[in-house]
Amino acid sequence: MATSAGLREGAAASFGLILEAQAEGVPVYLFNRNPGSGREIVSLKGDPDSPEFKAEMERRYGSAAPTHGENLGFGDDIASEDVGRAMLAVDLNNMRYLAASPGFVQGIADLLNHGVTPAVRWRGALGESDFVPTGAVLRGHGFAYYQGVRMKAAEALARAGLKPITFQVADGNLVTTSALTTGFAALLVYDLRNLIEWHDLIWAMDLNAMNSSIAPLAMPVQATRPFAWANFAAARELDILKGSYLFDGEYRVIQDPESLRATVWRDGGVWQAWARLRDSTLIQMNSTDHNPTVRPDVAPGDSWELATPQLLKYYVKGGKFSNGRHGFIFSNADWDPYPLADDVEAFPIALNNLMVAVVQRMHRFEDTFFTVTDAQKVLAAHGGAGATSGVGTNGGGGALADALWQELKPLANPIPPDGVAADRGTDDLDAVPMLKLMRLRQAMDISMDILGQDLLNAAFWMDIRTLEKPDRSFGDAPTAVLRGLRQLVPFHRDPGAPIPDVTPDESVGRFMRGHPAARFYAGAVGQPPAPDPAIPIAEPLRRPPGGGAGAH
Predict the structure, then answer these.
(1) Angle 301-304-308 (CA atoms, 0-180°, nearest 5)?
(2) Which H helix or E strand runs over 329?
């Protein structure tokens, strides 16, 4: 991974501005003022060329500098190294807004390129910034993974052919970001899309299996409720079903159970929740939540409040150390991880509202009132009555689906917000985004298992529908999924064959996790357009002196 010129230039500009702030006597939280309740205590004196300044840098970052506080958290590491690598990628991208030295920026890129991943222990974190361990590992402190093995960070660097870096200026402060939360969220955005796409494929198979009415998906119905993401879900489902026998003229009941009829609205709700989470994650990835905020080239005339005496205290006029560039440096609470944390927490609610329909529609296949077909009679007529792989004698959900649903339901409950009284009350909120992310990942995994049960049932009934009428077609994507699944879980289980080591329930899980849904249906229906303007980046808003809304 190479760092862009824009990233390096952005970091260099902020780096120079914070040095110039020291030369001009501008107070900067966490740099020349102490953190937390010590915020008014001067911690750094002299301009950057002075002996006082250089002595403090040596005290902070020299060979005899203290290393306590660089191995935060407790308990086990986050199990997946992918989360740690995603944290590094976000951390590196955020450096374009931070006062990071060139060595710090390149150091993160080197960790990614050489496979050194900080070991992250997340328990005990309040979530008002993640206090990421990236900087500690760059100095050779704490622990890291290299080639899948956990070891001391200094050893991991050595094995990768890297050397610890020496911090400069404000490098030691670059821990108060939400890079861990954001990186984890980005991975979930990717995985959750695959989950929803798998749902849509299996939903199409359920419709085929039930010999369903596709009227709820039709344009006139959808046009009466113009919810963009539900309308998208309907158009997508119709496209998956193209070529299915459901569009022919044979008799079928006018109305399915509600769990099939109403799926489109709940599926649209999940797609919309996913889009909100995606957009929040993209904004978080491409901005900064570090305290303080360093913004080179912003002038007092750019926004009316900047020209007031109070905010001018934090204006850096520009000089030798900033190459003449001016700007502002403000203390803030940007590391409060909202609204991203809200979107993370909300997703399991939308997911539960969809999955309850999935569980219920599985059970409706147990009743000939809905199927209008007795599966055992069809099997008997073709010499195959008896048990089949992965479902009960007549299809349906079974006890496993209900047990999984009991695991999923509690994850829709939010985590109540709380306050703390840390450091004399300067830190009096918590957010626990990692706990919320862990719950979302758990909800995603359980939902995938529930969909596996749905897939087994849908496949069983698609085979029954074929036995009923061999010339029935199901559409290209549902047919491809059925064929792929049947290679692992055959329709009929040979009673004389050895008992397999892997159950059908485990096999279907491996099949779904080993095959992205997009492999079967890439999606010809475009998603609703992004908001206008598109995902914003962290650029200053220019407001006229009168205080009105100005252009970007």
Answers:
(1) 95
(2) strand 327-330
Contact 84, 133 (CB under 8 A): no
143: exposed, middle or buried (Cβ count in 10 Å: 0-12, 13-18, 19+): buried
What are the angstrom distances between the C-alpha of 196 and each of 139, 189, 257, 331, 452? 41, 11, 21, 40, 13
Average pLDDT, the chain: 91
CA distance 179 to 175: 9
- Does 385 or 363 have the greater pLDDT score? 363
Q: Where are the beta strands (DSSP E) in 3-148?
A: 116-118, 143-146
What integer pLDDT is reported at residue 55 of this predicted model? 95
With H, G, I as helix, E, B as strand and everything else as coil, classify residue 492. Answer: strand
In terms of CATH, what superfamily is 185-280+343-493?
Answer: Fumarase/aspartase (Central domain) (1.20.200.10)
* pLDDT-derived band at 503, boundaries 50, 70, 90: confident
pLDDT tens digits along 251-305: 888 899 999 999 999 999 999 999 999 999 999 999 999 999 999 999 999 999 9
218's tokens: 């039709």
Question: What is the percent of the chain where pLDDT is above 70?
Answer: 94
- What b/e string do you get for 456-482 counting C-beta neighbours within 10 Å, with b at 16 or more? bbbbbbbbbbbbeeeebebbebbbbbb
In this predicted structure, the answer to whether residue 18 has a pLDDT above a threshold of 70 is yes
Q: Which residues pair with 156 in a beta bridge?
A: none
User: 26-35, 54-63, 192-201 — which one is most confidently predicted on average?
Assistant: 192-201
Tally Cβ neighbours within 10 Å of residue 47.
Answer: 16
362 vs 377: CA distance, rounded Å: 20
Which residue(s) pair with 146 in the sheet?
A: 116, 149
Question: What is the CATH topology of the domain spanning 5-177?
Answer: Fumarase C; Chain B, domain 1 (1.10.275)
Return the exposure string of 85-122: e unless at least 16 CB atoms fall within 10 Å of the residue's CB, then b: bbbbbbbbbbbbbbbbbeebbbbbbbbeeebbbbbbbb
